[in-house]
Amino acid sequence: MDHGFGRPGFAVIPVLDLRGGRVVRARRGERSSYAPIETPLAKGSAPDAVARGLCDAWPATILYVADLDAIIDRAPPDLAALTAITRACPGIALWVDAGFADPAGVADFLATGLGRPVIGSESQADPGLATRFGDRAVLSLDTRGAERLGPAALHDDPSLWPPEVIAMTLAQVGAGQGPDVAALAAIQARAPDRRLYAAGGVRGPADLRALRAAGIAGALVASALHDGALSRADARGL
Fold this sequence. Notes:
By secondary structure, the protein is of the alpha/beta class. It has helices spanning 47-57, 68-73, 79-88, 103-112, 152-156, 181-190, 205-213, 223-226, 232-235, and strands at residues 11-19, 22-25, 35-36, 62-67, 93-97, 116-120, 138-144, 147-148, 164-169, 195-199, 218-221.
């Protein structure tokens, strides 16, 4: 399976947040208030239906899945939902954050063949976990406002970063405030050999163009697709 590594160009990566076996709508990273999604892209909030709607709305090659039961409650990854998503969108690679915090959990997930594990800094005690798996894992540097989540060393030391890194600004998720392009560019300047992806705040095509101009490799997007601010027609300009 192609796990989405090394694709050229600027990547727009649709996002699904899973909670209790359904897709929920993210709002400013306040996970306790996430409710089952209502979207014109799908009937209901089943993961396979929403995934299919996102893939119809945008010519994606990667989907990002945040398994909130695993992240918040330390539940096992929802393999049934992930399998349903891959069946709904054949050929799509998955990046999956399921609260991975130890080598065994990462290795077990890789063995399923369902996608690439995302190592979220908020879940870490060991800042070296992300680099143990080379290019098979993606690192997410998680922040909420000015607070950096997880080990400080993981945020400060680019030698602990794998080839692909997500800058996850949780307070901007679903807030419609736009990405912090200057902060992202500063992270990119510290590790110009890494591919950096923005997560949180993308409102539409202008934000994507600004990120691309700043040298960012791609963006994780949800609300702009569900709200119709981004569509397949916009993909031709990237």
